Amino acid sequence: MFKPNPIRTDRNVTYIIKIAGYSSILFLALIFFFLLQNGIPALKETGLAKLFQSTWYPTEAYFGILPLLFGSLLVTFLAILIALPFGVGTAVFISEIAPRAMKEILKPLVEILAGMPSVVLGFIGIVVVVPYMQRTLNLPTGQAAITGAILLGLIAIPTVVSIAEDALNAVPQSYRQAALAMGATRWQTIWGITVPAAKTGILTAIMLGIGRTLGETMAVMMVTGNAAVMPEGLQSIFMPVRTMTATIASEMGEVAKGSAHYAVLFFIGIVLFIFSLIINILASWVSTRGRKRSERILS
Amino acid sequence: MTAFEDQSQLKGAHWQERFGDAALWVLSLITVLPILGIVIYIIYKGAPGITWEFLTSMPTNGMREGGIFPAILGTLLLTLGCFLFAVPLGIAAGIYIAEYAKDTAATRAIRIAIISLAGVPSVVYGLFGLGMFVVFFKMGVSILAASMTLAIMTLPVVISTTEEALRSVPNAFRVVSISLGATRWQTVWRIILKEGMPGILTGVILGLERAAVETAPILFTGAAFYLPTLPTSPLDPTMALPYHIYVISTQVPGMPLTVQYATVLVLLFFVLVMNLIATFVRSRARARRQW
Amino acid sequence: MDIIQIEDFSITYADGAESLRGINLGIKEHAINVLFGPAGGGKSTLLRAINRLNDLTDVKEVKGSILFKKENLLDSKLDVTRLRRRIGIVFSRPMPLPMTVTQNVTYGLEVAGEHDRGKLNEVAEKALRQVFLWDEVYDRLNDPAIAISGGQQQRLCLARVLALEPEVIMLDEPTSALDPVSTARIEDLLQTLKEKYTIILVPHNVQQSSRMADYAAFFLQGELIETGEGKKLFIAPEDKRTQDYVEGRFG
User: Fold this and answer.
1) pTM above 0.90, yes or no
2) Which of B127, B209, B246 sits opposite A35 (nearest CB)?
3) Which chain B residues have a beta carbon less than 8 Å from that of A180?
4) How far is CA A130 from CA A126, A269, C64, in A?
5) Which residue segment(s) compose the domain that B64 sits in?
6) Does residue B16 form part of some domain?
7) What's the total number of domains in chain B?
8) What fold is seen in the domain C2-246?
9) B246: which chain A residues are within 8 Å (Cβ-Cβ)?
10) Structural domain total, chain A
11) Helix or strand or coil: residue B290?
């Protein structure tokens, strides 16, 4: 029976832990690899030109992903139009105006919203929001881009609120006090001094909100009607639309492995992957640069 | 009043302030009241359907009657699988970043990888799981494939939570431990990991809860709807609550609404229980902390 | 006899700050060796270099040698865990580990591989008696160490080191966080301990330096200015800078 040597154990364990540390790089690479392995055939079989057409009709081998791309962009854009004012406004309210009691109520409620599974929000969308939109706006169907945008806005709001609120809290009290001491009202201080000082964090919040929204699947899938047509003109907001995520989720179940359709769905996955990578790395870069700058200013 | 003060301007600023405050009050309430309404509504419409049979028996009549036990079991099995594959690896990786890694380009690359993994859309994880586990490793649509997919999705959360928890342990402990002749691993194992564990557990529980309610990653990797029997091996597919909710609310004609609401309520209850457990772990740890 | 010989030792940190320059110093056995001087002089750095605690920080360059009984402590192949058991350190703030009183004392032995509960308790009692803490905490051995007072905690930190039966004990401003009564107790303790061990003490004021020194060394901004026996540096220093510091003209 050998006596465990702490120094040798230390060296062995260090080795194992180091491998574990690098595993995240490995998995990211694996994700990219398998997406490519299954998606690149789409470039060969269908070809880049046909992929970027405006007709998506897989049963007739029309694999133009533009309707899906613009569907995603439209719904995301509308969702951010909702999430930005409500999210940043709520964050400003919680951070600058709300009395302690209100804070203690608002923050847990935002937390609850953050923890809502998207399939549950999609469910509520189907049973409550869709009929409501149909009745109120007199639409042929309540399943439309705007409905999806409302749900996605709700989903993105907790992200925006929490990150924007952190950014506002990080603004030094001395800024506010200086403004007030010079005679500014609280309102003028908030919008003239505090919010601009937190603009990096607020920008990060919005970018992460966009990332969240672009990648959301179930809630959109259940309420946007899944009509894969190019959104054209302002009325498309009130018409059914299809996102990239919903397309993958709803069609993957019915494709044959290795078929052209299969490859194109993976190709869409590659597009989504690259989008999300760019947004998240950008958001992280913005956030780090902002933090470094404020550290320099405040030191 | 000083010479600079203009009566009308002051009044204007005053009204602007009151109007602005009121606008933000209303805006914030509009933001949070829906969620309150949603939860209350689901409880109201779903509670009548929650019976012991509903929770423990198999579904009948094409899922329209009977119980949702297989979906509940499936979700629990997937959560367990996710735990087994994500947690040991994630904690080890978190230990590496917090205690071993120096500030080099390689470490920065790891951080970028973690941020990137955290941002990958859940449906892309589904595609990845399909390509790697279901097809390449020939696991088929199975609990195993779905668990491993969920695990990789949960990995960034576990790593970040571990790093944060370990960093919050006072550095004095490390210095003292080393000065008494301990190796770095002995320090980590005997003191740092032990003291950071409650924080790690809290984050892990919340991360697992997020994974358990995801639908997209399990869509093509493990979830099924019409399963006459319970799964008997990790290579079997399984029913799962989130996927069940999706199908019964969109693809089953004549699906009783009460059953739909009740199923949703069960999922919400699962979320609630996990959050309560996490909160309990966190507050108990805070009370017993020796620093 | 010089139990530790520091020869032409210099150390620079990764951020460029040069901490010590060309230090030549002999640590005398079974005596209280006092290293004193204003803040930033490099005294703490020297202590941490001796027991290789510097390995935890970003050190850029190390020159010279530190010989402990003819062994060069700066050798990269040295068994540092064993070194730290032979040369122990007590820090300026009491830093109890998040464990019970007994576990704090036995920690060093446990990581060294001692598992016999009986032996561990025996050693713990002996160490606690050495620092005159046993009579005060014998009924609280299983309480968390933070439950005892600050002065007691610092003596506990000393007991922790003594349990490993070191040859040298280094103390970096050990009484700076303590009240005068606890300070006096620890100072008396050190006088008794020097018979068995070698003490290196960084005091936290000139008066303590003067009280405690069998040998004294004055450090200023990374350089060793002057050394002397007993109270010599405090009564009749040779260098003007030493005199200015000792008389309170700066510090």
Assistant:
1) yes
2) B127
3) none
4) 5, 28, 79
5) 60-288
6) no
7) 1
8) Rossmann fold (3.40.50)
9) 119, 122, 218, 222
10) 1
11) coil
